[in-house]
Amino acid sequence: MHEWALAEAVIKTALEVMKKEGGKKVVEINIVIGKLQTIDMDAFNFALGELIEGTPAESAKINFEYENPVFKCINCGYEWSIESLDKLLGEDEIEAIHFVPELSHIFIKCPNCNSPDFDVIKGRGVYIKSIKIQE
Predict the structure, then answer these.
(1) Same domain, 49 and 23
(2) Could you report how far apart the first and last alpha carbons of the chain are, in Å?
């Protein structure tokens, strides 16, 4: 379950930042989740709750922000975004991308020139936007 590994990375990073900054407690963690990443939020929240227990981050507020995918066509240079994969792709395609994000190139094409050659500029992955620490 990659949600557990993502949660471990978030908590480990927050605690490392706290220690590096000389803090005593993690107060808030702001996490950005790319919509192209499609993770199971129930599993992710459960893992965060389990892993944070008994740490200096135990009472931290965890906030989520979702980032729409933005693509840039390698062929024509056109940039576009997708608000929701559900409007563009079926459930099977979304699940395939969930496990192998590189498959997005099979299912998504440039709306300007129909090329499958594009870069994902935003909206992929999970990262910590900010961490608030109590000194």
Answers:
(1) yes
(2) 34
Same domain, 76 and 111: yes
CA-CA distance, 60 to 45, in Å (whole number)? 13
Q: How, if at all, do strands 61-67 and 25-34 pair?
A: parallel
The model's pTM: 0.78
Q: Write out the E strands in 4-125.
A: 25-34, 61-67, 70-73, 79-81, 118-122
Provide the residue range defining the domain that includes 78: 70-122
pLDDT confidence of residue 39 = 85
Residues written for the chain = 135
Contact 97, 38 (CB under 8 A): yes
Residues 13-69 pLDDT 10s:
999 999 999 999 999 999 999 887 778 899 999 999 999 999 999 999 999 999 988
Q: How many distinct helices (H) and strands (E) make up the chain?
A: 5, 6
